[in-house]
Amino acid sequence: MNTRSDTLSRAAAADPLGTGHGGSSPVRTPAQARGLVRHALAALGPLRPSQVDDLLLVTSELVTNALRHGGGVTGFGIRVGPDVVTLSVADASGISPLYQLRDELRPGGFGWPIVLRLCREVSVDTRPDGKTIHATVTVDR
Question: Cα–Cα–Cα angle for 114, 109, 30, nearest 5°?
């Protein structure tokens, strides 16, 4: 996993859906975030259903983790490239997610490993006032 702390301002300026921090996020729930992703994907044309499912699952996991462990969503964005879609979720915690092996009988702790498995690239930009996770999923167009 790459950790970069110098890309937030560039990402914030380039993301039409408001990645970044300092203002209020347009996303309050995983369902709202999935709606924004569905809307952005509709402009791409048809994608394989499994790719859409992967993007929606990654979206849900990142937003849920920001709400549960990061002090809330402070920014959300989606960037579409020729063969990738990158989701960016900012929160108020400067602590990077940890990958921990979990006992299958214990609840929770499976979201971050799912994100890492489904994404082509994941990076975490940390700042004193929080972090932004950028998760890139490959798509066929």
Answer: 65
User: CA–CA separation, 27 vs 52, rounded Å?
Assistant: 19
Give pTM, 2 decimals: 0.79
Rounded Cα distance between 118 and 121, Å, is 9
CA angle 77/78/80 to nearest 5° reads: 155
pLDDT in tens, 9-57: 233 333 433 444 445 567 999 999 999 999 999 888 889 999 999 999 9
Joined tokens for residue 66: 């920001």
State the Cα torsion 69-71-75-77 to the nearest 10°: 10
Length of the chain in terms of residues written: 141
